[in-house]
Design a protein that fits this description.
Blueprint (H helix, E strand, L loop, with lengths): L2 H31 L54 E5 L4 H12 L3 E6 L3 H13 L4 E5 L5 H15 L4 E4 L15 H22 L8 E5 L2 H5 L5 H21 L5 E7 L13 H4 L18 H8 L1 H4 L6 E4 L6
Parallel strand pairs: 1-2, 1-4, 2-3, 4-5, 5-6, 6-7
Helix pairs in contact: 2-3, 2-9, 4-5, 5-7
Length: 329
């Protein structure tokens, strides 16, 4: 190696060491700032709450009226344009949370809504009020979607009341954490399975004879069905089953011109989670996302409009749409 070659390689080494030193300095600054509270990422003109969330634990099934920080579901910047004009939608778990937010936007887009719920009557009546304020009709039906007979009866009531059915949103859910598989009793496992997947099956089967070409079924899945969750073994299993059920039913019903899709939300600020997690844990709810916050309901509900309306998604069926607040997942 010549002297000139030595000088060149030495210069390269010095340059690499200088670059390393600069990066080490930047890393030190970043490390020192890690102790500071991360800010919730905002991607629009409206700012949504970030970590820490309020410390609160709700009694099941959890009512939105009891939440100290109310979810944001009204979507004041969303303008309806008749995408669902004249349609009739059934929404299970429609009294609060995602179901309520979807009911409001469906009404804003011109649909009448039937809300099926367990026994959260105060929440359900508030949802009806919001739907009616949008200028549409709302039918409330209380019952247990685990019961196939109830599902058939509820669908019959909706058909008799409105004359037709165009959209089914399967959304009712039960969630309870467990640190170990050994903590999961068969009773709890049955409750989760029969609410989250049997309920979807019963409702889809009950409504199918009434659906015509152009109708849509939308299932609420979850990021837990995509990635799993070590503390939500049974819940994650049902959400994975819902994703598979969605894709399979989409193929099955496609010849009839009926589309079936799913939305898979990440952490969502609804009564479901404060009714599951401890007050201390709920303060960190949403911290796992790249946006360092849970999503608010009005950030999710437009996806249900998109998937329900043939004007928007006539060529889309069998998808699981993730809305999880993180990059590339």
């Amino acid at each position: 190696m010549s002297i000139s070659d030595n000088k060149m390689t030495d210069a390269v080494v010095r340059q690499q060491q200088n670059l390393q030193k600069m990066q080490d300095q930047q890393d030190a600054v970043a490390s020192g700032s890690e102790q500071k509270k991360q800010q919730a990422v905002q991607t629009g003109s409206h700012e949504y709450p970030g970590v820490p969330m309020p410390a609160q634990h709700l009694r099941k099934p959890g009512q939105e009226k009891d939440m100290s920080l109310k979810p944001e579901f009204m979507a004041p910047d969303y303008r309806g344009s008749g995408k669902l004009e004249g349609s009739v939608a059934i929404i299970t778990g429609g009294d609060s949370g995602i179901g309520r937010a979807v009911a409001v936007l469906y009404a804003r887009e011109g649909a009448d809504v039937a809300v099926i719920y367990l026994n959260e009557h105060d929440d359900a009546n508030e949802t009806r009020q919001h739907v009616e304020e949008e200028g549409r009709k709302c039918l409330l039906i209380s019952g247990d979607v685990r019961d196939a007979g109830f599902c058939r009866d509820a669908v019959g009531q909706v058909k008799a009341h409105f004359g037709h059915i165009d959209i089914l949103v399967n959304n009712a859910a039960f969630q309870e954490h467990a640190a170990s598989l050994l903590e999961l009793s068969e009773v709890r496992f049955d409750m989760t399975m029969k609410t989250n997947i049997y309920g979807y099956f019963h409702m889809a089967k009950a409504v199918l004879p009434h659906l015509q070409r152009g109708a849509a079924i939308i299932n609420t899945g979850s990021v837990t069905g995509l990635k799993g969750n070590k503390n939500l073994l049974d819940y994650s299993a049902t959400k994975g089953a819902i994703h598979a059920f969605t894709m399979s039913l989409a193929s099955n019903l496609l010849p009839q011109g009926i589309r079936v899709n799913a939305v898979a939300p990440g952490p969502v600020w609804t009564p479901l989670n404060p009714a599951d997690q401890s007050p201390e844990k709920i303060t960190r709810f949403g911290q796992s996302t790249d946006m360092n916050r849970p999503t608010q309901l009005e950030e999710i509900s437009p996806a249900y409009v998109f998937l329900a309306s043939p004007v928007c998604s006539s060529f889309i069926t069998g998808i699981v749409l993730p809305i999880i607040g993180s990059v590339g997942e």
